[in-house]
Design a protein that fits this description.
Shape: globular
Order of helices and strands: HHHEHEEEEEHHEEHHHEEEEEEEEEEEEH
Structural class: alpha+beta
Helix content: 25-40%
Distance between the termini: 77 Å
Largest sheet: 20 strands, mixed
Number of helices: 10
């Protein structure tokens, strides 16, 4: 009996820890989301705190957008207009030690061309792929989407195969009734949804949860004073705002939050859409998964609410920010969490120094469990002046760091050059770096960009030894063309038996002829 109890205790402890992690994670995400609250009318310490969070995020977003202004403008143009683009991919290899193996000749003479067209407004797109290698040319691979109709062309087929997503389940069931139920349909139009998080969903979460949390946090949790601080070499006067909650206040806020989430059907609908929006097929299976997901979510929230007292914060929660011109220029956050006899302290501290042309963020994220202390540093040194940007972002842990270096120059309103370097080093030694360099021209209705990718390891790998080149051209067109109806073989108009006969006769026969010609082409060095 005692042995059974001892076995059960670790299980209960593991389960309780799981709910604590879920509870803290959900709460952190939602509290962070309060920054989306619109500007406040009053100017209390509480409102100043969250307004500064919001403004600081917006400032970083604007900084990012300024780096990629031309690319963003072109992306917005492609969202509103039909675009045709051509991408050519080639490689260059020059490694003397591997010359005798023939790999260099294969890579140096290989090419891939991707021709695509897209009209998001009309839910239409097409792509054609051709490739060449060692004297062999492969053409005829193409696909077109017209709302929920898919057209596919293969190199060996005379026909273009068409199928409607609504008919896929019926076709699969007739071909294999033991495996498919007939409900395995696909909605191809969802492929055009880049961001399934709809504006109305965001508005709902903002109003129901962000504002709920904002209202639940007492005004007395905030205190404001004026204080001189040092940023880099400068001394500035900032508004110091302290946000603190006791352990009981945190538990009460989280309990109300979890209860609200568990009873919210609209929230479950939003989460389901986010989780399963890419699950086009297997509708019947997806429905079962959705039901299980909703039940697990409700159960998890109910358990989190029932066990909220397990979240032990002996020192409460405290976040201190220093604000200048509505932007957070310094931050200190700390919380100590106790669970099952162990204690862990989480700390975040950092500065954000901004001038007219530079911005330096330097933040430390520390976890201390009483035995070991682990710290990750994030440093972003950003500068922009006279059309030239030089940015270095480094993530560091003891003995290792990952660095992103980005240098861009705008020659005029349409032309720019860039170099992005991603590097990883350990114990002071750089192990590998990936370089992405290029030049681009972005005009109102067309663009061209040349990219070169290569890796460096400080020894044999460099741009001269191995590189990949991508050449892109984009042009505005009037519409996306669909295949000639005379070429189309519509599977949606055929029964399972007719499809089987078509595949076993026409398709296989054409494939065998094509393969025979292909093998003959390989023997003579061309096709």
């Amino acid at each position: 009996m005692e042995e059974a109890i001892q076995q059960e205790q670790p299980k209960q402890q593991k389960k309780r820890t799981k709910w604590i992690i879920i509870a803290v994670a959900v709460a952190a995400i939602l509290i962070a989301g309060i920054i989306s609250v619109q500007a406040f009318i009053l100017t209390s310490a509480k409102e100043d705190y969250f307004l500064a969070e919001k403004k600081s995020i917006e400032q970083l977003q604007e900084t990012f957008e300024s780096r990629f202004e031309q690319e963003i403008a072109w992306k917005e143009h492609t969202d509103e207009n039909a675009i045709e683009s051509v991408t050519e991919i080639t490689g260059q290899m020059n490694v003397p030690s591997m010359a005798g193996m023939g790999y260099d000749q294969i890579i140096n003479n290989a090419n891939i061309t991707i021709e695509s067209a897209m009209d998001r407004q009309e839910n239409m797109s097409s792509v054609t792929i051709s490739a060449g290698m060692a004297g062999i040319e492969l053409n005829g691979m193409e696909a077109t989407l017209d709302n929920n109709d898919l057209y596919v062309g293969l190199p060996f087929l005379d026909n273009i195969i068409q199928v409607n997503g609504d008919d896929l389940g019926r076709i699969l069931q007739e071909l294999d009734p033991e495996t498919f139920s007939g409900e395995e349909n696909i909605d191809f139009s969802t492929l055009y949804n880049e961001n399934p998080f709809m504006t109305e969903d965001f508005t709902y979460i903002n109003e129901e949860y962000m504002m709920y949390l904002y209202d639940q946090i007492p005004d007395e949790a905030f205190e404001s004073t004026s204080e001189d601080i040092t940023l880099g070499d400068n001394s500035v006067n900032a508004e110091k705002i302290t946000f603190s909650l006791s352990e009981e206040e945190v538990q009460n806020i989280l309990k109300g939050l979890f209860d609200k989430m568990a009873a919210d059907e609209k929230l479950r609908e939003i989460l389901v859409n986010q989780t399963f929006y890419l699950d086009y097929a297997n509708v019947e299976v997806a429905n079962e998964e959705i039901t299980a997901f909703e039940e697990d979510f409700v159960s998890t929230m109910e358990d989190a609410s029932a066990n909220v007292d397990a979240i032990k914060l002996p020192d409460g929660f405290e976040s201190v920010i220093w604000v200048q011109d509505d932007i957070i220029v310094k931050r200190e956050l700390s919380a100590t969490i106790e669970d099952a006899g162990t204690t862990a302290t989480v700390r975040v501290d950092g500065t954000n120094a901004i001038t007219d042309s530079t911005q330096v963020l330097d933040y430390n994220f520390t976890v201390d469990d009483g035995n070991t202390e682990e710290t990750m540093n994030m440093n972003a040194d950003l500068s922009q002046q006279d059309g030239t940007t030089n940015d270095v972002i480094t993530l560091s842990v003891p003995d290792a760091n990952f660095t992103i270096e980005s240098n861009q120059t705008e020659q005029n309103e349409t032309d720019k050059s860039f170099e992005h370097i991603f590097s990883f080093s350990q114990q002071g030694t750089q192990l590998m770096s990936l370089h992405w360099i290029g030049e681009g021209t972005y005009e109102e209705d067309q663009m061209t960009v040349d990219h070169t990718l290569f890796a460096e390891d400080g020894a044999t790998l460099n741009q001269d030894s191995l590189s990949i080149k991508l050449s892109q051209e984009g042009t505005t067109i009037s519409e996306v063309e669909t295949p000639d109806t005379d070429q189309v073989k519509n599977l949606s108009d055929m029964s399972g038996e007719e499809i089987t006969e078509y595949v076993e006769t026409d398709v296989m026969q054409q494939f065998q002829v094509w393969m025979s010609n292909m093998m003959g082409g390989m023997g003579t060095g061309g096709f």
